[in-house]
Amino acid sequence: MTHPTPARDFRPSPIAGRWYPGDPAHLASTVDDYLAQADVPAIPGAIIGLLAPHAGHRYSGPVAGHAFKLVQGMDVDTVAVIGPSHHRYQADILTTGHAAYRTPLGDVPVDHAALEALRETVPVEPVRWDAEHALEIELPFLQRVLGNFALIPLALIDQSLHTAEMLGHALANILAGRKALLVASSDLSHFYPQSTANALDRAMLDAVGAFDPVRVLHLETQGEGFACGRGAIATVMIAARDLGADTAQIVDYATSGDVTHDYDQVVGYGAAVFFRSE
Predict the structure, then answer these.
(1) Architecture of the 11-277 domain
(2) In the chain, which residue ranges form alpha helices assigned H by DSSP?
C-alpha cells in the first residue's frame, strides 16, 4: 500500500466518504471483500488490459472486483487508467496537473515523464482540483491488488474513433517494454428498465468480447448499446492490441438493480480482460 506524503502536491479526493468509504481500514476491508467474493476464470495468457465500472463501490464494487482480482499480485509498475470526463473542459483529452492522487489508502504518484512523452504526439491538457470520479474510483482496487505503481490518468471529453486511435497507438508506444496495465473505466447503459438494460448491455459486451473497438463506438451512434466511457474502452482495446493482446473475455456483468432491487431505472456494469493468449 502507498502511504501519504504531505509535502507532495497531491490531488485531494472529492469522493472519499461518499462514493467509497473514507476510513482507510473500512475501505481496505470492503475492497478486499469484493475481491474475495469474485469468482474469476483462469486467464490463459498475459493480461494487458481490463474493463471495470466506475460507479460508487456499493453499486459496482462486486463487478469491479472480478476485473481487479485477475491482476492481484501482478508485477506492474505503471497503470494507465482511461475514462470519460463527466465534467466539461475546453480540451479533448485531460490529465491531472498534480504530482499524485490521494485516497484513504495513500498516495499514487503520477508518471509525469510518461505524460510528457505522450504529449509530444497527443494533445493532453492538465487540470487541477478536478471533481472527476471515473479515474479515482478504480484506485483503491489497484492499490489493494498491486501495491505501489505509477499512474497515467487520462480522461476523454472527445470519445471519437479518431481520438481513440490516436491515443491508443500513442499509449502503446509509451508503454512498450514496460511492466504496464491498461484500465478502461466505464459503466454501461444508464436508467433503463432492467430488461432493456440487459439487452443494450449484452450488445455492448458482445462488441467488447469480440475485441471490436469500432463496433463499441458505433453501437451508441446506432442506439443499440451504451457505455459512458465508450471512447476509453476503444482506446484501451487499440492500445492493448498494439501491445500484443489478441483476446477479450467478459468476466462479470450486473446492474444497480441487482444491488438495490429497484429494476425500473438501472445502470449496467461490466468487467472484462484483454490478454495475449498462450
Answers:
(1) 3-Layer(aba) Sandwich (3.40)
(2) 24-37, 57-69, 112-118, 139-146, 161-175, 194-209, 213-222, 230-242, 257-260
Q: What is the distance between the alpha carbons of residues 194 and 50, in angstroms, rounded to a whole number?
A: 25
How far is residue 104's CA from residue 143's CA, in Å, rounded to a whole number? 10
Asked if 127 contacts 37 with a C-beta cutoff of 8 angstroms, the reply is no
150 phi and psi, to 5 degrees?
Answer: -100, 145
Cα separations in angstroms, 123 against 37, 93, 155, 167, 209: 40, 7, 12, 9, 30
C-alpha to C-alpha distance for 107 and 97, rounded to whole angstroms: 15
Number of Cβ within 10 Å of residue 131's Cβ equals 9
* Per-position pLDDT tens, the chain of length 278: 444 444 479 998 999 999 999 999 999 999 999 999 999 999 999 999 999 999 999 999 999 999 999 999 999 999 999 999 877 777 899 999 999 999 999 999 999 999 999 999 999 999 998 988 899 999 999 999 998 999 999 999 999 999 999 999 999 999 999 999 999 999 999 999 999 999 999 999 999 999 999 999 999 999 999 999 999 999 999 999 999 999 999 999 999 999 999 999 999 999 999 999 98
Rg (CA), the chain: 17
Angstrom distance (rounded) from CA 226 to CA 46: 28
CA dihedral 20, 24, 30, 35 (to 10 degrees): 110
